[in-house]
Amino acid sequence: MKSAKTWLVSCTALALLACHQPGASTEPESAPPAPEPKSQTLQPGAPEPEQAMPAPQAAPASRIEASGSSLRAQGSGLSASGSSLSGKQSDFNIQIDLSADVLFDFDKAELKPEANAELQKAADVIAQKGKGVILITGHTDGKGSDAYNLRLSRARAEAVKNWLIAQGLQQNYQTEGKGAAHPVAPNTHADGSDNPEGRAKNRRVEIVVNKTATLGGQ
């Protein structure tokens, strides 16, 4: 009996010792959570410098593009105001031809409301390029007496000058009327019949904008 009890005690002691020994399987289970939070804190930090880098690079580029587009817009605005006007240019002056039919009613010297748009284009050229005398000349077609056409053409030139002054363009203006003396197209066809298109071209107001202080282009 003693030997049997001794054997049971020994087995029990061995079993207790086995339960208290640290197991290898419990330690690795607690180890993985440690690197997982580390990897999670690193991942959100990684894209942050990548997002921060493009922001300062994109901002200067957009500012340069915007300033370039504004310069292009200014340039296109200047060319647009000149190209829509009929006339010619030399080293000394710019001649602007305005249709009297756009500016005035038939046989009248009072400006129509529709004239403002065309006159404003001419005013822009004068403001930008005018350095000397601004010569405004009225012309008519061949219908009517010479005396009447002279009076009408002078009155129309004066009306254009007064409009420009009213816009604040204080320049050295000269006005004159030529009547039908200087046509740019025939008033009649070769067979003597009326030429409405030619007469319409002759009814005009010319503005010569001198780009220098002297009348070098005259």
Topology:
Layout: H1 2-20, H2 26-30, H3 35-45, H4 47-52, H5 54-83, E1 86-89, E2 93-99, H6 100-103, H7 115-129, E3 133-139, H8 146-166, E4 172-177, H9 196-202, E5 204-210
Parallel strand pairs: 3-4
Antiparallel strand pairs: 1-2, 2-5, 3-5
Key features of this structure:
218 residues, 60s Ribosomal Protein L30, Chain: A, globular, Cell envelope biogenesis protein OmpA, signal, membrane, Bact_OuterMem_StrucFunc
How much strand content do the residues show? 5-15%
Q: What's the average pLDDT?
A: 75
Number of DSSP helical runs: 9
Cα end-to-end separation: 148 Å
CATH superfamily of the domain at 88-210: OmpA-like domain
Which fold name corresponds to the CATH topology of the domain at 88-210? Answer: 60s Ribosomal Protein L30, Chain: A
**In terms of structural class, how would the helical and strand content be classed?**
alpha+beta
Architecture per CATH nomenclature, i.e. the level-2 architecture of the domain at 88-210: 2-Layer Sandwich
Biased composition (Low complexity): 37-87
Keywords: Cell outer membrane, Membrane, Signal
Signal peptide: 1-24
Protein name: Cell envelope biogenesis protein OmpA
